[in-house]
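Crash report, auto-generated. Payload:
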Amino acid sequence: MLRYTLKRLLSLVISLAVASIVIFVVIEVAPGDPASFMLGMNAQPETLAALRSELGLDASKPERYLTWVTGMLSGDFGTSYTYRTPVSQMIGDRLWISLPLALYALALSTLVAFPAGIYAASRRGQAGDIGVMGATQLGVAVPNFWFAMMLVLIFAINLRWFAAGGFVGWDQGFWAGLHALTLPAIALALPQAAILARVMRSSLLDVLGEDFMRTARAKGLTARQALWRHGLRNALIPVLTIIGLQFSFLLAGSIIIEQVFYLPGLGRLVFQSISARDLIVVESVVMLLVFSVIVVNFLVDLAYAAVDPRLRSRA
Amino acid sequence: MTLLEINQLSLSIQSYPVLHDVSLSVAEGEIVAITGESGSGKSMTAFAVMQLLPKGAHTDGWIALAGQDITGLSEADLCQMRGNDMGMVFQEPMTALNPVQTIGAQVAETIRIHEPQVSLAQAEDRAAQTLARVGLPQDRFPLSRFPHELSGGQRQRVVIAMAIALRPRLLIADEPTTALDVTTQAQILDLLKSLVQEDGMGLLIITHDLAVVADMADRIVVMRKGEIVEQGATGDLLRDMRHPYTRMLFAASSHEVTLPAAPAPLPLLEVRNITRDYRLPRKTPFGPPGSFRAVDDVSFTLQRGERLGLVGESGCGKSTLTRAILGLEQVQNGSITLDGEPVFTGNQPNLVVRRKMQVVFQDPFGSFNPRHRVARLITEPFHLLQDPPTGAARTHAVAEALEAVGLSATDGDKYIHEFSGGQRQRIAIARALIIRPELIIFDEAVSALDVSVRAQILDLLAELCRDYDLTYLFISHDLSVVRSVTDRVLVMKSGQIVEQGPTREVFENPQHIYTQTLIAAAPVLPDIGVPA
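Recovered output after restart:
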């Protein structure tokens, strides 16, 4: 298990290094000089040169790559071209909303999907299964911005249980923050839960058809005992894969929901920076997202090995 | 005393009849074997006794265990009985164990589920004793082992340990050795026999292998299409088979064909000192990768018109050798030539050689694309030819190939699912024959077939040998088949050919210790002299 973990860790570091090079090169290749963009069309060449050297753009490319990477390692992501504020601070502020929101949505989705998937699988072909599968079909099909607006209409405008949008800030207390994120989290979780429940169901059905489930029944386990003791853990691998993918998506892909609920999250930051050609912010956010995807994959790999002993010994 | 009694059991699944009027009994300490071909309902009978039937099953008649009818019992009562009063062993040891639990946990579970008052430590203690009893002592096979760390035979021992941990009165074994090598099969059968003797269990063994049946059982039950055609004490039944189906079954099992004499030796395939290593994963991130030698310095010559057999147990390198001969994989050392031409030239398979060889695989279901018609399937080897026949010539070739294997030309328009297993294997042979190859490789080509179908395919082979002067390499784990359809045989073990010679000589007077073990382990049908 230790060797497996070290191997995965090594592959994590290599992936990060490769990703950082790719991102740097792509942004370099993209046309446009940030300095001339910031100063406008009529800038004096001397002013331009001064700004370029201030931004560190006059150094050689490998040097600039190294400055960028070492800066990131010490938490310095550079300065936004548009806002002239540290990028790390901008990202940090947004992350405090996006990360809890993603985790909240993922927790909701998992909490709904596991019981729903297990319930449907254990009642295959019966009314309960058909009902759950119909509901997940709807969950995948309903556009999430429409669902979000319905949530606002019902729970914020009619029932007045929640605010219609905005974020109170964590300084109001953990529960207040969580309360403010509840509607967006539900809106984000719905399609994810629907997908996850379907994966859980089909994965569990595959496992229920395995020979060792029959062996378990022959030992005297009831169908329910066999499902919980032998079925579930074997069904987890595909489910973990989907959870990993969903987390990465939720972290950055929630822009529509952020827009509906007026949440200053990462998705909106990326959107605004791209519109403003604020390349250093885009670069940093992309790197951050790549980092989160790779770390989540690493965690999923560790979870695989915890679930399946065959992976531990293969490494 | 009668332990299990099945009385006039009929079973239908989704109103499709599966069993009809099945009556049999098993006494304490008795071994009863149910035998028959696929679809005879022998496994369903076993599952009916365990009351582990698929959804939509409807039974009539009754099944009594120690005098108690179990067909009317509640699911809760049945769960009490399964594992406790009756245990079951399955066909596929590779998949019968939960891959994510240790063998100790899985054996201990049988104990804990029925005796919840037993502590985990006590249950593990008893699990260890049971594993030792089935030949997996703790010093070599600790409880913490996972199934994937064990071989097929060892896994089957774990399954047996789970089934007998509570010393049930009835043990049901459904094809317990079908997936195992002959030497492992002999060990597992011995283990089952000794367990029956020690515990006085009744054993209901289900197997298609008549040699196993004759060797093991006190009584034999022969089934066909969901009905019992004949049953009786083993000795009596073997001496006096009343039903023609029983006679046919035994005759087909020991079916022998007469091959035409082989022509004068003229080398066709020459394999010289070939070696094939596979890379294993690195032990350390930067250390050298390990390697596994699958084929180790193998040499042999196959003469034109000769029928050569290759026997050996799983993992001995048969498949690697086959792939190397077919040019599907390159070897690291040595040379393989057909008619003097190398199979591989310049790291590329040599097409000139490849079009002279064809192969017939084991699985008649998996080796065809289900969306193509038979005519297209069997003309696939035409891709190898420089100018394949078209139009009328192609139609003629298809008809000729199909008729050669005993099918009709009109079968070319059908899809593969419309044929039975035996017919599919005929189609596979037609596909191999259609380009008139110099050499055909039969890779376990009759292993998945029922005995009666197997006998027909072997007859077909002998016929084709007469009509087409076939040269083939016949790879099989089934010694009796190899004995019947080959002139010469190679015995392979751990990547090496340990013995080769004329088939009859090798079988009658094996020289190498491994060949002797192999032949001794193979169960043999008693010579009962049934008319074919």
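Post-recovery validation: Residues 11 and 298 of chain A are 9 Å apart (CA to CA).
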